[in-house]
Structure formats: structure tokens, C-alpha cells
Amino acid sequence: NAGVTQTPKFRVLKTGQSMTLLCAQDMNHEYMYWYRQDPGMGLRLIHYSVGEGTTAKGEVPDGYNVSRLKKQNFLLGLESAAPSQTSVYFCASSYSGPKETQYFGPGTRLLVL
Amino acid sequence: DQQVKQNSPSLSVQEGRISILNCDYTNSMFDYFLWYKKYPAEGPTFLISISSIKDKNEDGRFTVFLNKSAKHLSLHIVPSQPGDSAVYFCAASVVSGTYKYIFGTGTRLKVLA
Description:
Chain A is mostly beta strands and 113 residues long.
């Protein structure tokens, strides 16, 4: 039981490049989330999904897109990376919504030059 | 506008003593609160939660107190151990709302041996 896994662990991009971060969970959770963590800012929700085929915007969605084609996977895309997107990205999943524990992946460290 | 605030970025405590981590919130609609612990290079892990119908919840060495009138919650760790050294995030949600948590900025706890 791997829990929540994230690929890649670390990536360096040049401004304007695109990339996709992959999150996978093997707990049959309905809800999945993408957060970013920046110094002094805590964890901020980018996008989330309440089930396969659904996505919704969080607090800081601009510059990101997401897809949930399969229940176990949640992809975060950066179409044209900017230095402001340098951050640590965490994926999380939960069985259902509020009052359910969110299980986090180990994070992806992204540096945009 | 930071709806969940952790005003102490860091805290140092001697091993065996009590650690008290504080969290304030501004949104009176929040009715469910959690604490997460995060070690370096790992994702956050769930620690303890409390519903707004309670003012205290205890789990082993960890106790969370909620003061709704003051919009304040605190996490007490007794006795503190070196392994408790981590960043602690509080988070809040509206249970009947949109399935998302608002996280605080985190407090780095260092337990000195």
C-alpha cells in the first residue's frame, strides 16, 4: 500500500516551459487535492477534485490546469511556467470531504528559472 | 486575507516540558479544525482534529483546545519529545461547504534534548 505518490520529486524548468505533475493514490479515495507550499504562506489549495472526471478551483488556480481522468490519478499541469511558480507542490487525497483526514504525498520541488 | 493564522513562526521547548502551539481564525463559519505535522522532505501527516461542538480533544500526548468565542485553538504536547520537532500546521474548514481546508502558515517546533 503505497498511499499517495508524486512524480517527479524534483524538477528544474525554464520560464515558458510546460510540465505535468502526477499524483497517484491507491486508497480508493474520492477526493484529491493539489497544494503549493511557499515560505511564510503555508499550504494553499490550487485545485481539487471530488470524484473521477470532476475538478474545481481552489485559492490559487491561475497558471495551472488539472485533470482527473482516472479515480486514482490527479494531474497538475503548468502550461507556461513562471518563476512565481517555484514552490513545493503537495498532492493529497481523502475518502470524502470535510472531517476526513487528508493523506499527503511526499511533495514535488519545482524550480522555475 | 489570511483566514487562519499562526503568529509564531517558531518555538523552542525543552524535552519533557509542555509545547503550546497557537492558531487563530477569522471566519466564524469554520466548524472543523485539524492539526498536521510535517517533517522536512515529507508531506504533512494528520495529528488530531476537533469539531466546533467540542472545546477539547485528546489523543495521547496531544490535546487540542478550541475557544470559539475567541476564534482560537491551541495544540498542547505533553511531554514534548525530540521526535516532535517538526512544522505544525493548523487547518480549518466549513463542514457543509466546499470540501476544502484553509491552512495556517505553520509553526516550527524544536524540542531540545
